[in-house]
Amino acid sequence: MARLIAQRLFNSLVSIALASVALFLIFEMSPETVAADALGQYSTREQRDLWLAANGYFEPMHVRFLDWVRRCVTGEFGQSRLYNRPVSEVLGPRLWASAMLAMLFFSFLIPLSLGLGIAAGMREGSLLDRGISLASILTTSVPPFASAVLLTAIFVFWLGLLPGTSSMVDGFRWKELILPAAVLLLYDFGYLARITRASMADVMQTAYIRTAVLKGLPNWWIILRHALRNALIPPFTVIMLQINWLIGGVVVVEFFFAYKGFGSLILEASLTHDLFLLQACTAVSVLLAVGTQTIADIGYGLLNPRIRVAAVK
Amino acid sequence: MTEPLLRLDGLSVSYRTRRGAVPAVVDVSLALKRGESLGLVGESGCGKSTIAFAIMRWLAGRGQIAGGRVLFEGRDMAEMSREELRRIRGKRIAMVFQEAMSALNPCLTVGAQLTEVLRFHEDIVGHEAERRSKDMLAEVRIPDPDRVFRAFPHEISGGQQQRVVIAMALLANPAVLLLDEPTTGLDVTVEASVVRLIAEISRRFGTALLYISHNLALISRVCERIAVMYAGEIVEEGPTRRILTAPIHPYTRGLISCLPESGADKIARPLSPIPGQIPAPWERASGCFFQPRCGFAVDGLCNTSHPPLVTDGKGSTVRCLRADEIGADRIVAAASEALAPGEGIAVTVDQLSKDYRLTPPGFRGLLPFAEPLRIRANDHLTFNADQGRTLAIVGESGCGKSTFARVLTGLERATGGRLEVAGQDIARLSVIDRSRDQLRALQMVFQNPDETLNPSYKVGRQIARVASRLLNLGRKERAQRVRDLFAEIRLPAGIADRKPRHLSGGQKQRIAIARAFVGRPDIVVADEPVSALDVSVRAAVTQLLMEIQRTNGTTLILISHDLALVRYVADTVVVMYLGQVMEAGTTSQVFSAPHHPYTEVLLAAQPKLEGDRGLDAPVEGETPSPLDPPKGCPFHTRCPRKFGAICETTRPPEQVTPAGHRMACHIPMDELARVQEKVTT
């Protein structure tokens, strides 16, 4: 197991190194664009050259790369043009906000989806299974922008229970997080539930479950001890992939509720050509993707002992 | 009369399908007394496994008991509550499954899967459960119970997995053990030791056995009585000895006579196959179900009334209307003519080696320049295949026989030595570099026809395509060639318009054979060509392969683990173990003393109808890992005739007789001949 972890960590370091080279090449290969973005499009050629020289852009490539890496590691991403503040100061609160939303979302998604999926998969074809599958398909097929409108209409305008925006102007309040999390949950729980259901149903068909039944083990023991662990492998992958999606990809929901999350920050940075901010956002996204993938791989090893061996072979 | 332990009373089981309810088991009555062993023989689809699951009252999804009762200790199991049933499963009636690997939970250790039986049936947990489980592992002859107890199923070998499943079934000391093909997928030597274990355990623990298998020879080693099933019915039941020596029902006779007898070869006693195929449940004939394939069937009798099961008063029952008339004639095919020895050499194998490289385990594997591990799958092989004859390569899994086939057909490239076909060295010529004529000259028949035939094209078209690729034939000639081939493989031409899924296993393998012979190849490599087929079909396909070889004058290279088949089909034999040639010679040389000790073990492990003979102490243990082959003679770790340290240190020299019989062993051949004669007489 220790071997597997070491191997995965090593792999993730390699991935990060490769990604950093790629990022550097994408963002730093044409200094003129960088200077134009930094100084604005009405700057003169001379101004740009001066700026480039001052910021070390005429140094040799490897020096620039190492310097770039050093700045990335220490978090000196430069000044955000849009916010007129250091990038790291802009980035921190946004990431934290996205993490809060993700946490709330996951603390409901995981019990709900896994629970329903397992219940449905245990008795494939039963009334409960059909009901859960139908509900999953219906909710998944409503896009977030539609359900956001619908939920706002019900809970904000009709019942008046929840605030309609989540801009957190008066400081952080959980109440403002409920609607965005609910919209995401409504959209996403069916997907995870169906993955779990399919996986559970497959496991219930296997020969080792048959063995367990014919060994005379009680039902609860068969489910908890024999089926669950095997059935959780595919949903686990999905959950890990969704972390990336939640942090960077839920722009619509963030915009709708005016929530200052990481996804909307990426959008703002790209629309305004705020290059340093965009660079930092991309680096964070890459780090996040590699991180969750590494956790997923190590988690596989814990769930499935065969992978531990396969990795060593 | 005392009530038997387990009684099936007119049991019928059917499956709900799109064609309606399909009867899988029809009116089966059986009785199993305490401590008795009953064998249930039949081919795939005859309903034998369904019976086992019906006894356990576990018919997944679509199955249902349509009639009859299962009585355990006099009680109808249908009337038991779920909890009562749970207490019987695993505790009073335990089951051993085929394919132990999939029957064991991959995520739980062997120990966890054993102790839970005690936890729920005997309320034993903790150290006591662990101790009893380890004791049971020792009982089923697992060499290091402590390690296996902590291991995951994938960390132990196939033979050990099967032993674990047996141990799991025996833990709660059940009264009845149901065994469903418990040795499928195991090597012959491992199979032999598992079967011996089962026989021994039923004697010692007084467990009643219901042993289900398609293999009559295996069952006869374990069981006192045998019931033969055909198309969901029992057609004959009686004491093992009587069934084997004086079978009455034509199907039982057919089953026995289509097995290659261990002492026979293809000239003295050709196989007599049962014609036709096993009917699907919805295609069963009117009258007797076996009548369309029966040589004794009489029109107006057998095809009009369904025969009842008749008891003869001496403990035998038979379901045949003509049982009294057909007497005890055995079905014997006429002897065929012998072949003259080969006139030339088709394949020359000279010091051929094939190494596989593997990434080493652990941290070293992460380094870019780590020395790769080598697995020597073929180690300096040297032998010839005579033109127009059959060369068989035998050995257990991991011996390198399939690797050789892959090198010969160009799927792999050799790493050393020469492989000469038609005067050209093709050892390092991979299949994409071979000329069209070289491809035409060398074709292959695979074990599983489903992997050869494309499921989405009609079979005739698939054969025609090969004809156009390899022979450059025009449309008309192509069609003619396909028609000729269908005649040669004895299939009606109409089959050409069907897709593989509409054909039976035997028909598909015939098509696969036809595909290989389209281009009139000089050499055909057949890798276990009949081992995926049912027993009664196997004989017919073997016969066909030999005929088509003979008419085309093709050199056949047969790769098989089945010694009876090899003895029957081959002219020369090469025995391999861990990548090396252990023995080579003509079939009669290899199959008569002196044998190489490994050949001797293989022969002893072969299930025989005549009962258990040969070596008194056949090998235990399994083939060592090719990653870490033993030093000296590769077989010394399991060799029953190992005689000293030299076997462990020095690679044995090759001894050659003037007649060309070769063997790699430290023991002189005449010495081997002397000790082996003693055993066989």
Question: What is the strand and helix layout of this fold?
Answer:
The complex is a heterodimer of chains A (313) and B (681).
Chain A lengths: L1 H27 L2 H9 L5 H10 L6 H14 L4 E2 L4 E2 H36 L4 H14 L3 H15 L15 H31 L2 H8 L4 H13 L1 H16 L2 H6 L5 H10 L3 H29 L1 H8 L1
Antiparallel strand pairs in A: 1-2
Chain B lengths: L5 E12 L2 E13 L4 E5 L6 H8 L7 E10 L2 E2 L5 H7 L4 E4 L3 H4 L6 H12 L4 H14 L5 H6 L7 H13 L5 E5 L7 H18 L2 E6 L2 H7 L2 E6 L2 E7 H6 L4 H8 L52 E2 L5 E2 L26 E14 L14 E14 L3 E5 L6 H8 L7 E6 L2 E2 L10 H6 E4 L3 H4 L6 H13 L3 H14 L16 H13 L5 E5 L7 H18 L2 E6 L2 H7 L2 E6 L2 E7 H5 L5 H9 L40 H4 L4 E3 L5 E3 L4 H12 L1
Parallel strand pairs in B: 3-8, 3-9, 6-7, 7-8, 15-20, 15-21, 18-19, 19-20
Antiparallel strand pairs in B: 1-2, 1-4, 4-5, 9-10, 10-12, 11-12, 13-14, 13-16, 16-17, 21-22, 22-24, 23-24
General description of the model:
- With 313 residues, chain A is an all-alpha fold.
- Chain A contains 15 helices and 2 strands.
- Chain A folds into 2 domains: 16-87, no CATH class; 95-273, MetI-like fold (Orthogonal Bundle).
- In chain A, helix 5 packs antiparallel against helix 11, helix 7 (144-158) packs across helix 8 (174-204) and helix 8 runs antiparallel to helix 11 (233-248).
- Chain A is flat.
- With 681 residues, chain B is an alpha/beta fold.
- Chain B contains 23 helices and 24 strands.
- Chain B has an 8-stranded mixed beta sheet, with helices on both faces. An 8-stranded mixed beta sheet of chain B has the order 18-19-20-15-21-22-24-23, with helices on both faces.
- In chain B, helix 5 packs across helix 7, helix 7 runs parallel beside helix 8 (188-205) and helix 15 (459-471) packs across helix 16 (475-488).
- At the A-B interface, helix 1, helix 9, helix 10 and helix 15 of A face helix 2 and helix 4 of B.
